[in-house]
Structure formats: C-alpha cells, structure tokens
Specification:
The complex is a heterodimer.
Chain A: H1 12-19, H2 24-27, H3 47-59, H4 82-88, H5 91-94, H6 106-123, E1 127-128, H7 135-149, E2 156-160, H8 165-175, E3 181-185, H9 195-201, E4 205-211, H10 223-232, E5 236-240, E6 259-263, E7 279-283, H11 287-291, E8 297-302, E9 308-313, H12 319-322, H13 335-371, E10 386-390, H14 395-404, E11 411-412, E12 423-427, H15 434-447
Parallel strand pairs in A: 2-3, 2-4, 4-5, 5-6
Antiparallel strand pairs in A: 1-7, 6-7, 8-9, 10-12, 11-12
Helix pairs in contact in A: 4-13, 6-13, 7-8, 13-15, 14-15
Chain B: H1 53-65, H2 87-93, H3 96-99, H4 111-128, E1 132-134, H5 140-157, E2 165-169, H6 175-182, E3 186-190, H7 200-206, E4 211-217, H8 229-238, E5 242-246, H9 259-262, E6 266-268, E7 289-291, E8 303-306, E9 311-314, H10 331-367, E10 374-375, E11 385-388, H11 390-396, H12 400-409, E12 416-417, E13 426-429, H13 437-456, H14 458-462, H15 475-480, H16 486-494
Helix pairs in contact in B: 2-10, 4-10, 5-6, 10-13
Classes of the chains: A alpha/beta, B alpha/beta.
Chain lengths: 448, 500
C-alpha cells in the first residue's frame, strides 16, 4: 500500500527505459545480492483502517481532560489557544526544512527571530538561540559551554540537589565525554539551596546552576546572592527559569545570569506524553560567550536591495563547518515548537504573561493550602506549580486509592529523595479547577 | 513564473499597540494576594508585543506565505529526504490521547501510548535488523551521540580504555565527527577513493587497538552504495572496533536490505526523514537508536517492555548510559511515523525506496552531459546524486550557490550545496519517491536553462533570486554586525547603527 504517495509507480517501466537501465534490479546491482531480503513486516493498510486502529489505541490513554491530574514535576498541563495549533500547521511552516536558503524561507526565519527576541525579553539576555531539544539538554550544553569557556582548566559544574532527576541524568550523560565532574549542593532547612554548602565547593568550578523555582516548586530567594558567589569564584552563573514565571518574577539576566535556560514548550505545546519540547538557551552580549554558544542563531541583515531580511548566522560555531571542533553536535532542533511558543507569547503580551503567572501562583497556593489540611508540607516558602506533600501511609497506597476514584495524584519523589519519605509532588497551573482540587482533598481525607 | 509573496511584514514588535490583548485567562481559584519577595519581583521592563488574536493570526499567516515547504513544490535537499508528509499523520498526532497525556501517568492509564512506542520499535527492529531500540533521542545528532556513547561504554566496560579513536569518512555529515568528539573520542578521518567509497587501504592503515569504531552512512552522502561494506565491517571488527550506521540515507535501501545484515552494530534513524514526519522548519525530529543484542544493556532508560498483557517502562538497564533527553523522546513524532509505517507496509516501503532510487537515477541520466555540470564519481546512484558546478564556475564565474539561488526563481527548492566537502561546488540532489516525473523533468529543465543562462547571461544567475520574498541575503553583514534579537536591534537603531 501507500501507492497514493508514489506518483511515479505508474510510470516505473517507462522511466526505467528512459534511464537506460533495464530493471529496478539493475539499479540495485551494487548491493550484494546475498543481502537482499524479504521482510517480515505487515501488509500496508488503507488510511481509514489505520485511522480506526490508531484512534482505538490512543483512546486507551486516560487524558487530563477525562480525569483530574495533579502531575507536574517538569511537564505541565497548560492550555494552548486554538489559533496556535492552526498556525503552526500551515504547511509552509510545518513541511519546510531548516532555512538553508534564506530568500525563500523568510517566514520561518522571521518567526524564529521573533522567538529569540521574545525569549530575550523574558530572560533579560539579548542573545537566544533558535532552540535546544529541551530544558535538560540546554542545561547540559550550558555545563559544557562553561567548561569550554575555562578552556578545559575547570571541569566542575555545580547543580542543586533539588533538581529534576530527569535533568540530572541528561547532564551526567552529556558531560561524561568532556570529563566534567557534576557536584550536587544540598538544600537547607527551608528547601532552598544551602548557600554555605555552595561556598564549600564553588572554588575552581566552571559554572554554577540554579533554578528560580526548584524541583520542589520552591521559589529560590537567593538567586542574586548565588550568582555573586559564583562570580566571586570566577565561575559562570547559569540560571534556569520556567518562562511562565517571568511575567511576575525578575528576569534571570537582571539577577546576574551569564547563561539562562528554560523550557519554551510550556507555551504553545500540549504535553504530548513528554515530547517534543524546546529548550531555551540565552546568553549575555559578550563575544566570548557568543563564540562558545551551541545551536542555530537567526540574525537580521539586509538583502541586495537594502531591504530587511533574516538569515542563519554565526555558523562557524556549528557542526557542518567546524565538524569535530564544533561547539555542539546539534543540527535539527525544535524550531516549530519554538515558533508555537512565540505565537502563544504574542497573544499573551506583557499583561497576559503577568496574569498567567499570577493565576498559576494563586492556584498553587490554593492547592498547597488544601493539601496542608491532610498532609505535611515539608517546606515553607512560595511555591510555583509544584507542591510537595508528605503522607503517613506509603504513597503508593494513596496513589492507588486516588486512581480508583478517577483522580491522578502527584508524582512520587521518595525514590529519588529518600530523605523526604513518602512525599509526592502535586502541581497546579492556570488550567487547574477548584472542583478538581476539592475532589482531590475529599478523596485524600478518606484514604490518606 | 513563480512569485513568492513579498509582504514586507514588520516584526511583531512593530505591530504592537498599547492596551491590545489577544488572550483570555480563567480566573484564579482564589483571589488572594501572594507576596513575591521584593528582590525577586519583576521590575525590569517586559517588551512583549500587544496584539489582538486576529492581528497575530494575520501576521503569522503572512509569514507562512513567505516560506516554502514540501507542500509548495519540489524540495530535493540532499541527505534530507524531503518526502511528502501525509496529512493523516497530523490527524492522528492531534488525538487527545497524544496531546493531553502526562509522561508520569500511571502505566495503566497510558497503555495506548506505550503500545505505540513498543509497536514502533518492532517495526524499526525488523527494518534495520537490530535487536533493541531506544526512541529517546530527539534528532539525528542526538541519536549519534547516543550511539557513540554506547560504543564508549561498551569498550570501557570491557576494560578497553585505550579505544579512544572514532573513524569517520571524509564524506560524512558534520554531525558525525561533532557527536564523536562530544562523547570524548578523537576523530580520525578516512579518505574516500576515486569511486567515492571508503578507501580500504586507508582504513586498514587507520585501524588499531585504539579504534573504538567507524561511523558510516550507507549509501554515503554521494548517493553511492558502499559495495565493499562486508569487507569494511570485517576490517573494523577484526581490529576490535564497532560499526555505526548513520541512518540519514536509509530511504535508499528501505525494505530491500538491512544495516544489521551489513555488519552494523549500532544504528540511528531519522523519523523526520525516512518515515515521513514533517521537519517543521528545522525540528522537531526524532532519532531512534537500535543496537545488536550484545549492546542492549547500555541503552538509555527507560525502554518500553511488553509482557504479553501490559506495556511498561523498563528502567532495569544495568549498564545504561543514562539519558540523552528528558523523558521518553518526541512522542508526537513517533505517532506520525507509526501511522506512516502501517499505511505503507512491507510492499509500500520497498516501493518507496525503489522509486526514490529510480527518481534519482532518472534525474542523473537526464541531467548528465549538461554543460557546466559534472557528474561526480560513477553513474549508478542510490537515492541521491552529486553534480559539481566546478566547470561552470571556471568557465563563467557562476558558482553552485548562484545555481541554487536561481532555482528558487523557478519555484523550486535548491539542492544541498557545498556538501559533501570532497566534491567542489557540489550540488547534492535527492528528489525522493514522492515527486512526479513531470516535476523531475521540470527540475532538469530548470537546471539546463540555468546552464544556458550561465554561458549567455551570467548576471541573471549571479543576481538571483529575483522572485522570492527578498533578494540575495547579505550573510556577511549578518555575521559582521550581529542583530540577534529585537532588543539588540532597538539598541543599535538608537545608536544610528542600522538603516534596515
């Protein structure tokens, strides 16, 4: 099957004749015949049959629309306005390749330039690449970049212990080849980064990474101070921020960040079972930093008539030119996800972004207040999206009981952070409904 | 004659009017004031544009009209496999069972998603002759990094700490050496012979007890099948190295032969090339990595398992390299690829590669002999072909770049140019199986016309393009005076440093 995608199937013989070859077999005569094989694969099906089959398979998933879910821990249920999906499905965007020919790709190039520009505003740093794979790989690339900036003389990169286990694993895998030493700094009693412990390890480190709200959803109050400690030790300061915070929270660039990273797909993309996503990567306007930056960058220039135009630029850092000496191996990125986030941000504007942040922080506060009625909240402070709650019963039992009631509870973190015991992260966003939280608490009262 | 839209569309920031809103927001559950610590409250300006929804929609619609995709016309970028992206893929990927599913949901509530991943793995295993796959890598290069990291872990695990060299042919994609270097390898380049394939003697001389592996694309970036592949495999394996398959060109042999049967130990695929998922103007892609049985314990976590009743995430991978990306990979891309596979089936995949190869050879035969273009290496190609515009450059001053730009004037996308590096003034053409004979004929006609122009009126070619949204773009200026964001632009404009 699939004949409907192959126009020349009907002209096959005629075309073979015109090439001067005698048969399809002759076109494959350079392939050792003993390798040719009959494949053990199913027969093709009609589009309708596949439509039915895959609809049925996907309907087996229970979605966040069918059952209230309090899962977060790095992936969040945000609402994506309908026009975003409509626009990114314009086939001129959707079916294009990387804009290697700028003259015929101005639309994508300008859209990506606008993405870079909007993220530059949010993060307070003027130079943003046109996306990494996700937040986790963006941190890992930042770690490698800080080591390169120290010309390999410093190989220690500091991260908070209260960081997503997913992100930690990505950082470790990415930096193994370069021989980086990843050091975790524990949290203090309030759940935020232990500054005294940071001071003990900061010397000779290439970079220090901190997030404006950590894995426990706790707002980190001492971002600026942590940056000062890093800079005093001549280490680069890398700040991670959930961009949905940045309408109400200060920009990482204003807090001293040399490099800022985050997750762009919180705007414009649904959860998609975890991917695709898009990593934000931003740096200060400093030639030294720009030269070591990974990823594609779109710049503004002019055309032969002096008209404004856009083009991929500063490519001498990249793999297709520098090969083994490139700043990163990244080629395909997450361009369309980045454009989706820009379109969403364009409709939010400054007011909408602030209102989104306010709504999330208020809903998180409500969730936290209600959770505190039946579980222990291990840390004081302000939470953004995620709230840890500790239970007396094993959380797996709580989880089972909630699931039976048609509620998807939090994400159990006791496995990764045994010192927190039977703790799960519950999350709220602007999509969280009061009746969901109330139903959760009601159920927890019965089971916890 | 082709005419692309020329909207002179301002930047979205320039369309902003104070007070306009383009969003609606649900009310917070409780309207309590949350005190953000003074030192963290946003005080710096937030210069996002302010627009209504219809204005935003018009802006991006106009931008899209100044872009060219596979649906706009022929897009024969070599090594990119710009085949048609079936619309049913998009339909299935939009299912709420994809969009509204959280990756940390209880396994019992995501059986559909896990089944999709598991089934996709079974297809890819049979297609490549590998024993186990990870679907985690986000793109080809991410897959390469995964693959070479696995090779590194394998050697270290066997106490072979001296295997620090990764061999890469000089015709390889730039990502190959870059990925190998990122994984900590020293890259050794292997020259090609006069047939455009790996020079066996050079390979023999390069392998040693330091060899970790060889990264190979087959057919290679010249579109030539490495017909001595079994010998290559023998040489590398005998030296104790492993063989890595860059799947960028799998479309040439899909459903015909398998990397696993050629002797490859590790394979990465590009779902966004071979398996019809759209490129999205640069991504998202998806770069699954398959390995032979003896390497499966090194794969990233989690894998997807199936015990005959239920599907599950398997974190029990004893020597795993860890994770190369958060979570499980680009799931929405996997859904599209599986949709494609199920429609194509065994015969469909074979038809696809046969027609892709036929189309490339048809174009080769029709174009060869045209003044100014020289066919590189031998005539029999697989899915793509490389011509050199070196004679044209010498005789008329018209370069491969000019030819590429002039093609745009005919409403056709340019080939990949200046790659592979071993061919001067390279024009690397990969038509794919989804273009018609008429489109191929028109492409050849356009290239012939450009040849005539080059020899009679070269200025029209050197001044191209004329029919696109903008004229030839000044990339030297872009690098010399970097303007990388609205913020930088405004600053430069205030200083009087920019007139565009």
């Amino acid at each position: 099957m699939g004949k409907h995608y192959l126009p020349n199937l009907a002209q096959r013989d005629e075309m073979i004749k015109e090439t001067g070859f005698s048969s399809i077999e002759e076109l494959f005569s350079d392939v050792p015949t003993e390798m040719l094989k009959e494949f053990d694969l199913p027969e093709g099906k009609s589009e309708y049959e596949v439509f039915l089959e895959l609809n049925e398979v996907l309907s087996k998933n229970r979605t966040a629309l069918e059952m209230p879910s309090f899962l977060g821990a790095g992936t969040y249920f945000h609402y994506v306005p309908a026009h975003v999906k409509y626009l990114i499905e314009r086939s001129e965007f959707l079916t294009a390749y990387t804009p290697y020919q700028p003259e015929i790709s101005q639309g994508m190039l300008q859209a990506l330039f606008e993405y870079q520009s909007m993220m530059a505003e949010l993060y307070g740093l003027p130079i943003v690449n046109s996306s990494m794979y996700d937040w986790g790989t963006a941190i890992a690339e930042a770690a490698l970049m800080t080591a390169r900036l120290h010309k390999g003389k410093r190989k220690r990169f500091i991260i908070p212990k209260a960081l997503s286990p997913e992100k930690k694993e990505v950082i470790r895998t990415y930096t193994r080849g370069a021989g980086l030493e990843i050091v975790e700094v524990p949290w203090s009693e309030n759940g935020q980064l232990d500054i005294e412990k940071l001071k003990e390890v900061v010397e000779d480190s290439a970079g220090v990474y901190v997030e404006m709200a950590n894995f426990f959803g706790l707002v980190e109050e001492n971002v600026r101070e942590i940056g000062e400690i890093a800079h005093e030790a001549n280490a680069y300061f890398v700040v991670g921020a959930d961009p949905t915070m940045l309408g109400i929270f200060e920009a990482p660039g204003e807090l001293g960040a040399d490099i800022a990273v985050g997750e762009a797909s919180y705007f414009g993309s649904p959860m998609n079972f975890g991917g695709p996503r898009a990593g934000v990567f931003a740096v200060r306007d400093d030639k030294k930093l720009i030269r070591q930056m990974p990823g594609r960058i779109i710049g503004m220039t002019k055309d032969a008539d002096g008209k404004r135009a856009f083009v991929m630029t500063l490519q001498t850092r990249e793999q297709h030119i520098r090969r083994a000496k490139a700043t990163s191996n990244i080629c395909s990125n997450e361009a369309l996800v980045a454009v989706a986030s820009a379109i969403h941000l364009a409709t939010l504007g400054p007011r909408g972004l602030a209102e989104l942040g306010e709504t999330i922080i208020k809903n998180t506060a409500y969730l936290k207040k209600r959770l505190s009625e039946i579980a222990e909240i291990p840390f004081e402070g302000i939470n953004f999206k995620d709230v840890p709650a500790r239970f007396e019963r094993p959380y797996s039992e709580v989880h089972e009981a909630l699931l039976e009631k048609g509620i998807h509870g939090g994400y159990y973190i006791g496995k990764h952070f045994p010192e927190l015991g039977e703790t799960a992260l519950f999350a709220a966003t602007e999509t969280t409904r009061k009746e969901w939280v109330d139903a959760l608490i009601e159920s927890l009262e019965e089971v916890a | 004659m082709f005419r692309q839209a020329k909207w002179e569309e301002p930047l979205i920031f320039e369309l902003s009017r104070e007070g306009r809103v383009g969003y609606t927001m649900p009310k917070p559950i409780e309207d309590v004031e949350i005190e953000i610590p003074e030192k963290l409250r946003r005080k710096s300006s937030l210069n996002l544009p302010e627009l209504s929804e219809p204005e935003v929609v018009k802006h991006y619609t106009r931008l899209s009209e100044m872009n060219y995709g596979v649906d706009s016309g022929i897009y024969p970028l070599g090594s990119c496999t710009m085949k048609y992206n079936p619309k049913i893929n998009e339909e299935i990927a939009s299912h709420p069972g994809v969009a509204y599913v959280h990756p940390y949901q209880d396994e019992r509530t995501v059986q559909g998603a896990l089944k999709i991943m598991w089934e996709l793995e079974q297809w890819l295993k049979e297609i490549t002759g590998m024993d186990r796959f990870t679907l985690q890598p986000a793109a080809g290069a991410n897959g390469e990094f995964t693959g070479v990291s696995i090779i590194r872990a394998y050697h270290l695990d066997h106490g072979e700490t001296q295997r620090t060299e990764m061999l890469v042919p000089d015709s390889a994609h730039g990502t190959n050496p870059a990925s190998a270097a990122m994984a900590g390898f020293k890259v050794i380049e292997i020259p090609s012979n006069e047939n455009g394939t790996v020079d066996l003697e050079a390979l023999e001389n390069a392998v040693s007890e330091r060899t970790a592996g060889l990264m190979l694309t087959n057919p290679n970036t010249l579109g030539i099948f490495e017909d001595e592949i079994l010998e290559i495999a023998k040489i590398v394996h005998k030296a104790g190295g492993l063989l890595y398959y860059d799947g960028a060109n799998l479309n040439a042999v899909l459903g015909k032969i398998r990397p696993g049967d050629m002797g490859f130990d590790v394979v990465h695929l590009n779902l966004h090339k071979t398996f019809s998922t759209p490129h999205g103007g640069g991504g998202p892609g998806s770069g699954p990595v398959g390995v032979k049985d003896f390497l499966k314990d090194y794969l990233p976590v989690p894998l997807v398992g199936y015990d005959g009743k239920r599907y599950y995430l398997d974190y029990n991978v004893p020597k795993s390299i860890g994770k190369v990306k958060e979570l499980y990979g680009n799931f929405a891309v996997m859904v599209r690829a599986l949709t494609y596979l199920k429609i194509m089936g065994r015969e469909g995949l074979k038809n696809a590669s046969e027609i892709a190869v036929l189309n490339a050879n048809y174009l080769t035969q029709k174009l060869k002999g045209t003044r100014g273009y020289e066919l590189s290496h031998k005539e029999l190609r697989k899915h793509e072909v490389v011509f050199s515009a070196e004679p044209m450059k010498k005789e008329t001053g018209v370069k491969a770049l000019d030819v590429a730009k002039r093609l745009l004037d005919f409403g056709m996308h340019a080939p990949t140019i200046y790659f592979p590096l071993i061919v001067h003034e390279a024009l690397m053409i990969e038509p794919t199986e989804t273009v018609s004979k008429e489109e191929l004929d028109a492409y050849v006609e356009a290239l012939k016309r450009i040849s005539e122009e080059a020899y009679s009126n070269p200025e029209i070619v050197k001044g191209a393009p004329h029919s696109t949204a903008v004229k030839r773009v000044d990339d030297v200026l872009a690098a010399k005076k970097p303007i990388l964001s609205w913020r930088m632009y405004i600053k430069l404009k205030e200083e009087g440093g920019v007139d565009y």
